[in-house]
């Protein structure tokens, strides 16, 4: 049974990414049009649009299970790909799809449920001899209970949303006096992001590396892993730069961790793409963190080094095909790095930079891949996350990949919003990062300067300001009336006008 | 791609002052040869076919964007990094310096919303003394809770928002008396 039509229940770059593979496989694609982003780029690439703009429901469009299912039924669509975030890890959504005979491109509802419930996931890890961190058994009800547990396992501890992921609803607590405030923040963030305020508590490992394994299973009990991804460059638990492989692993450790990841997947009869996240401490001990039962943002680095298309594999597994690869077929070739280009003002503490992308041009080369959700005049809204594109660079060695990545970032031009590009350049140029010597506290501990700037930048900026100011003065002197109300006229336009008077 | 030939020679001098009081004296911004702090430079401004503005300086390209301007206050981005300046003429610069010297210190600073969002929690009360960098409230935007901290120390004079208020970018949140 081949899938012939697919609803992409997501937006942004991942919707565009899924569409590309689906089209190549001859699948008709559908995208969801929302009022918040009715002009988004992904709507131009999909074959057909499912219009959700007529009514505005309380619930965000991409979380509205019944509305999505009704749309799939009325458009006669066979399958749904949830992407990442939104409903990707909702066991209820996967179950509703099963009930309605819609192919959900992802694992079974039961696997999502078991791995999504951190308590069950931990029990499974323990049972299958995968190392874990100490923590609460189940959720913590209030700050008082959290303090009792924290006293037992020792500070620092971390509060995490039970239904969590993506860094939301997580707070590190250094001492008992912070617990009340942090508990409040973690639960309210969890409630907002996942509709579930429950949090659990865990021993916090200082300065670990974040290493995750891409696993894959089919519906016939076959499992492989596709190596690891190093995601230690994080800010507030949000990944910013990822790579594959990791400079922290050797073949032996890779095999050991990969096998542990597969044991977890096997335990829940997993199929489709999944990611098993581990913390690696300074002594190279690894601890199971969680399993993400979805395609991840950073999946392209794995695709680059393993020469696979994970979305294609997901679709093939969903239509009951066997995995075309065996573990021995999986080779890691070269090195891949991904930089997340977020609409954020790094100088302003990574605050969202909302507005219109007036122009965007990407670096081009055969070893560069750009996954993007925007084009010229795309609007970055406050409704969704801030990621606008991903730059992925592949080379033979890590050293070459880093260099090529910096060069690519310098040719990645955006006008209208601020992005994380100056941050990414700064990381890639950092001595310790280049040496592969870093962990999740890299940004706080090692970066005195969090964005790349060169000595002459300020002088050049001063010149531009003076140039524009002088042009404006000249403008006034020649009593030129500006009918366009001035604000965004570029100095060169003014300059031209001055000359034309 | 076009190079905008610079206009007639003028002898205009401008002073761009950074928030840290760093001064750039720019002579002849439209001239063939621009002088910055007494040194002749080869800065040229271009506009690319795609609509980007960039500078070529010492054979290197720099992406340029004026992101904000309000009278003589500018924010200019070079390769994605923002710099703020106040541009003065030599006379207005002298006047500003004179005024600064003779002004009394007691001034009120505003903490403004760096982005649109919702106020999740207020962390200070009116009349509280706060330090530079101390978080004053939590603003939720893009599904993230952001701690907004004060860029100045002083006494909280007035709080303009309450919990669950939605705010727009640049709304005044809190007034702080230094």
Question: In words, what does this structure look like?
Answer:
The complex is a heterodimer of chains A (501) and B (178). Chain A has 501 residues and is an alpha+beta fold. Chain A has helices at residues 12-24, 42-45, 65-74, 91-99, 109-116, 118-127, 143-153, 179-194, 251-267, 299-306, 310-318, 398-410, 421-429, 431-435, 442-446, 457-477, 491-500, and strands spanning 5-8, 28-33, 48-51, 79-81, 103-104, 157-161, 171-173, 199-203, 209-217, 223-235, 238-244, 272-280, 286-292, 335-342, 344-345, 351-352, 355-357, 359-361, 368-372, 378-380, 387-395, 413-415. Chain A has an eight-stranded antiparallel beta sheet, sandwiched between helices. In chain A, strand 12 and strand 13 form a beta hairpin. In chain A, helix 7 crosses helix 8 (179-194) and helix 16 (457-477) runs parallel beside helix 17. The termini of chain B are far apart. Chain B folds into two domains: 2-99, no CATH class; 108-177, RNA polymerase II/Efflux pump adaptor protein, barrel-sandwich hybrid domain (OB fold (Dihydrolipoamide Acetyltransferase, E2P)). The longest helix of chain B is centred in the middle third of the chain and has 12 residues, at 90-101. In chain B, strands 1-6-7-8-9-10-2-3-4-5 form a ten-stranded antiparallel beta sheet. In chain B, strands 11-18-16-13 form a four-stranded antiparallel beta sheet, with no helix packed on it. Chain B has a four-stranded antiparallel beta sheet with strand order 15-14-12-17, with no helix packed on it. At the A-B interface, helix 8, strand 16, strand 22, helix 16 and helix 17 of A face strand 2, strand 7, strand 8, strand 9 and strand 10 of B.
């Amino acid at each position: 049974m081949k899938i012939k039509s697919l609803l992409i229940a997501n937006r942004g770059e991942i919707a565009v990414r899924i569409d590309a593979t689906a089209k190549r496989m001859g699948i008709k694609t559908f995208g969801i049009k929302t009022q918040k982003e009715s002009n988004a780029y992904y709507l131009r690439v999909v074959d057909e649009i499912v219009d959700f703009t007529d009514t505005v429901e309380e619930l965000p469009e991409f979380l509205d299970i019944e509305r999505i299912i009704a749309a799939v039924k009325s458009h006669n669509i066979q399958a749904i790909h949830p992407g990442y975030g939104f409903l990707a890890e909702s066991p209820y959504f996967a179950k509703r799809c099963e009930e309605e005979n819609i192919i959900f491109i992802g694992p079974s509802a039961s696997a999502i449920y078991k791995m999504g419930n951190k308590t069950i996931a931990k029990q499974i890890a323990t049972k299958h001899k995968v190392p874990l961190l100490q923590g609460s058994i189940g959720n913590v009800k209030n700050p008082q209970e959290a303090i009792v547990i924290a006293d037992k396992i020792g500070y620092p501890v971390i509060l995490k949303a039970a239904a969590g992921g993506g860094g939301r609803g997580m707070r590190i607590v250094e001492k008992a006096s912070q617990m009340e405030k942090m508990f409040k923040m973690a639960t309210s963030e969890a409630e907002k992001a996942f509709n579930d305020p429950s949090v659990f508590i865990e021993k916090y490992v200082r300065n670990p590396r974040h290493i995750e394994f891409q696993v894959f299973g089919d519906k016939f009990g076959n499992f492989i892993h596709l190596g690891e991804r190093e995601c230690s460059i994080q800010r507030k638990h949000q990944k910013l730069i990822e790579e594959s492989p990791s400079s922290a692993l050797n073949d032996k450790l890779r095999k050991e961790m990969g096998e542990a990841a597969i044991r977890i997947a096997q335990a829940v009869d997993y199929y489709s793409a999944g990611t098993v996240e581990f913390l690696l401490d300074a002594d190279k001990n690894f601890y199971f963190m969680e399993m993400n039962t979805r395609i991840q943002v950073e999946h392209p680095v794995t695709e680059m080094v393993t020469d696979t298309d994970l979305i294609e594999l997901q679709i093939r597994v969903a239509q009951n095909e066997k995995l075309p690869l065996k573990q021995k077929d999986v080779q890691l070739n070269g090195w891949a790095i991904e930089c997340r280009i977020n609409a954020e003002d790094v100088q302003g503490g990574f605050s969202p930079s909302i507005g219109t992308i007036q122009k965007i041009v990407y670096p081009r080369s055969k070893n560069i891949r750009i996954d993007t959700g925007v084009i010229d005049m795309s609007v970055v809204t406050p409704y969704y996350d801030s990621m606008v594109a991903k730059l992925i660079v592949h080379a033979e060695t890590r050293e070459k990949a880093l260099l090529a990545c910096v060069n690519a970032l310098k040719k990645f031009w955006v006008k209208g919003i601020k992005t994380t590009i100056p941050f990414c350049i700064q990381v890639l140029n950092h001595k310790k990062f280049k040496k592969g010597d870093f962990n999740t506290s890299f940004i706080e501990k090692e970066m005195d300067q969090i964005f790349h700037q060169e000595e002459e930048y300020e002088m050049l900026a001063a010149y531009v300001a003076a140039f524009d100011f002088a042009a404006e003065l000249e403008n006034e002197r020649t009593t030129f009336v500006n009918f366009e109300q001035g604000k965004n006229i570029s100095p060169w336009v003014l300059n031209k006008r001055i000359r034309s008077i | 791609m076009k190079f905008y030939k610079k206009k007639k020679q003028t002898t205009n001098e401008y002073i761009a002052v950074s928030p840290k009081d760093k001064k750039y004296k720019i002579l002849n911004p439209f001239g063939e040869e621009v002088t910055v702090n007494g040194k002749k430079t080869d800065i040229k401004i271009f506009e690319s076919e795609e609509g980007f503005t960039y500078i070529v300086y010492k054979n290197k390209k720099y992406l340029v964007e004026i992101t904000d301007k309000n009278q003589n206050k500018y924010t200019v981005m070079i390769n994605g990094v923002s710099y703020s300046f106040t541009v003065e003429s030599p006379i207005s610069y002298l006047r500003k310096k004179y005024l600064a010297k003779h002004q009394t210190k007691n001034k009120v600073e505003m903490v403004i919303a760096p982005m649109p969002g919702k106020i999740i929690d207020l962390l200070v009360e009116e009349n509280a003394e706060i330090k530079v960098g101390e978080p004053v409230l939590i603003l939720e935007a893009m599904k993230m809770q952001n701690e907004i901290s004060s860029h100045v120390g002083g006494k909280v004079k007035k709080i303009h928002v309450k919990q669950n208020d939605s705010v727009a970018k640049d709304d005044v949140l809190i007034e702080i008396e230094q």
